[in-house]
Amino acid sequence: MHILLAEDETVTRLAARALLERAGHRVVAVEDGPAAVAAAAESAFDLILMDLGLPGLPGDEAVRAIRRQPNGTAPRILMLTASATAEGQDRCAVCGADGTLIKPLRLDTLSATLDGSRGGGAPASMSATEPAFDEGAIRTMREMLPAARVAELIGKTAAVLRQHGQALDEALGRGDRATAGAMAHKIAGVSGQYGCVALRRSARALEAELEQPNTVPARRADEVTGMLAAALEFLERSAARG
């Protein structure tokens, strides 16, 4: 297929594009909402994968703009989101997209959704009894990409997670719930693509708590901090294995 991938987080975009291209698809990747709208106007795509939290123009607004274009009813559009919040899921459901994929992007889930065996919308919540790390996520990348490329992506991911973790701590320290929620959302999106399951679960839970104005998310924030440290160790071990 000819696929437009709109994803602002660099390491997530690189990994998703690599997986899609190795599966035989032609991919155009953009990193913000206006670029996604422009690309959809310039070329005919079989499928658009649209991140909800794009800069410049949010993903749901970008979908609406694409649907208003002369060929806007033609492409199939799936939203991509790491959001666990009711607001995020509602935005995906009513914007004119054909369904929703919860990050991380996986080829089997994408194929099932396109085949109609799995509809859009949020899947069941992840269980706290699930393993902390999905070794299969890294293994899949190793099977589809050169070892040096995988190590590079893992290294970049660890650096991004450190940056987001620091920004999260700073936002919580000054009581900036909106920024903290955005950072939790970014951590969830990046960590899931690289097999850090427990961190993704905790970050999504923190994002949901921060959406509620009367909650005090100190315990959940501490949990995310601990999971982040463990995730960084996991990524470092994975990169060292080559």
TrEMBL record:
GO CC, alphabetical: plasma membrane
GO biological process per UniProt: phosphorelay signal transduction system
Residues bearing PTM Phosphohistidine: H185
Domain Response regulatory: residue ranges: 2-118
Residues of the HPt domain: 146-242
Highest taxon of the lineage: Bacteria
Cell location: Cell membrane
Gene3D superfamilies (UniProt xref): 3.40.50.2300, HPT domain
Keywords: ATP-binding, Cell membrane, Membrane, Nucleotide-binding, Phosphoprotein, Transmembrane, Transmembrane helix, Two-component regulatory system
Residues with 4-aspartylphosphate modification: D51
Topological relation to the membrane, as annotated: Multi-pass membrane protein
Pfam families hit by this protein: Hpt (PF01627), Response_reg (PF00072)
GO molecular function: ATP binding; protein kinase activity
Name of the protein: Response regulator
Organism the protein comes from: Azospirillum lipoferum
